[in-house]
C-alpha cells in the first residue's frame, strides 16, 4: 500500500509538472513577438558618441543583439565591429545620407561590409519646400542605379526609409507610392518608419499589407497622444513615447509586418527618456498576442 501511495504521489507530481510546462509553452507559443527587437543607434546617440563600449553594454543588457548604425560616431567601422563582436552584437543595417550614397558609394559599401551589415539605408531625399514629382523621379533614378551597384559589386541591399514628406498626393495615391512602384525590386527595398507614415496621415499597417515583401525592416516608434500630424517630416523628439502608449496601433502594425515577412524590427526612440522607455517598449512587444 505504501508503495502504491508513493507511486501515486510521484505520478501526481509529474503530472502537475507536465501541466505547468505545457501551459508555459502554450502561453509562449501564443506570443506574437517573443524575441528581442533590434535598435537604431540614434536612440543612444549621445551615449555612442561619449562611450561606445559602455553604450553597447546597455544595448546588450536589454537583450538586444541587432543594431542599425546611422553613424560611425568618430570611430572606424572596424573599431565598432570589434566592439560588437566582443559582445555578440550584430550590425544588420548601415544608414547613410543620400549624398554619401551617390558621391561616396564605394566608401559607404566598404564601411557597411566592415560592420557586417547586409543593408545600406538612406532616410531622406534632397528637396526644397514640398516634395515634388521631379524629386521623386530623380530619387527613383538614383536608387535604381546605386542599388544595382551595391547589389552587384558588394552583395549589399539598398533600403529606403520614409520620413513623412513623401506622402504628397499624386494620381490615385501618393509620391511614396510612386517611389515604391517605380524602383526595381531587385535592387531597391524599403524600411517603414511607422511614425513617419502615421504622422502625415497614412496607415502603417495598410502600407505593409499593400507592399508586403518590398519591406525588409521597420522603425518602431510611437507618437504621443494629442500631437497633431502633418506632412513636413518634423516633430519634437520628445513626442516619441513607449510603444503601445501613443496613437499608433502597434499590435496591428506588428501583425501586418510579420505577415509581410519583415526581418528586422528596430526600436527608434529619439526622446531624452530612451534609457527608461526602451525596456518598457521591449516589454510591450514581448507581451503581444497572436
Can you describe this structure?
This protein has 12 helices and 12 strands. The chain is an alpha/beta fold. The strands form 3 sheets. It has an 8-stranded parallel beta barrel with strand order 1-2-3-4-5-8-9-12, surrounded by 6 helices. Helix 3 (52-61) packs parallel to helix 4, helix 4 runs parallel beside helix 6 and helix 10 (204-211) packs parallel to helix 11 (250-260).
For the largest beta sheet, what order do the strands appear in spatially?
1-2-3-4-5-8-9-12
Strand proportion: 15-25%
Largest sheet: 8 strands, parallel, barrel
* Sequence of secondary-structure elements: HEHHEHEHHEHEEEHEHHEEEHEH
Poorly predicted runs of 5 or more residues = 14-26
Average pLDDT confidence is 92
Count of beta strands: 12
Q: What characteristic shape results from the CA principal axes?
A: globular
Helix content: 40-55%
